[in-house]
Design goal:
By secondary structure, the chain is mostly beta strands. The protein has one helix and eight strands, in the order H-E-E-E-E-E-E-E-E. The protein has one domain. The chain has a five-stranded mixed β-barrel. The protein has a three-stranded antiparallel β-sheet with strand order 2-1-3. Strand 5 and strand 6 form a beta hairpin. The longest helix has 13 residues. The chain binds zinc ion (ZN).
Amino acid sequence: MRFSVPRYWRERHSYYRLKAAKCLDCGRVTYPYTERCRFCGSSRVVEVELVNEKARLLTYTVIYSAGEGFEDKKPVVIGIVETEESKARLLARITDVDVEELKTGILLEPVLRRINEDGESGLIYYLIAYRPVLKTG
Ligand SMILES: [Zn+2]
C-alpha cells in the first residue's frame, strides 16, 4: 500500500475519521465519502464519520506474501467490515488478531495504526485498522 504524499496529506482527515456519505433519500451510507449516493444516485448526501462505530467482520483474506515495507508485519489480514449503526461496508486492515482466531461475524473496533514511513519526506503514514473488541470478564 503506497500513497502519493500530496494526496495522502490532502485526504488525511478523511482517512482518520472514516468520512462517509449518508444519503438523505435512501438512508444508505457510502464509504469513502462521495457527493452522489452509490446506491440510488441521489446527490442529497450529508457527511458522516464512521470512526466511532464498531463493526462486524463480513469476510477476510490473509496475505502471507507481504510487499515491500511490510516484511516484518506478515501475515497481513484484509477484511470487509460492516459498521454496526450505519451499515457501511469498507475494506480495512484487520490488526491485533491471531490468524487462527479469525472468523466472520466477530466484533471489531477502529484503531489508528502506523503503517509505513516515507524515508524521503519523513512523513509517517497512519490508517484506520480494525481490531477485535476485547471481551471483558
Ligand atoms: Zn441513496
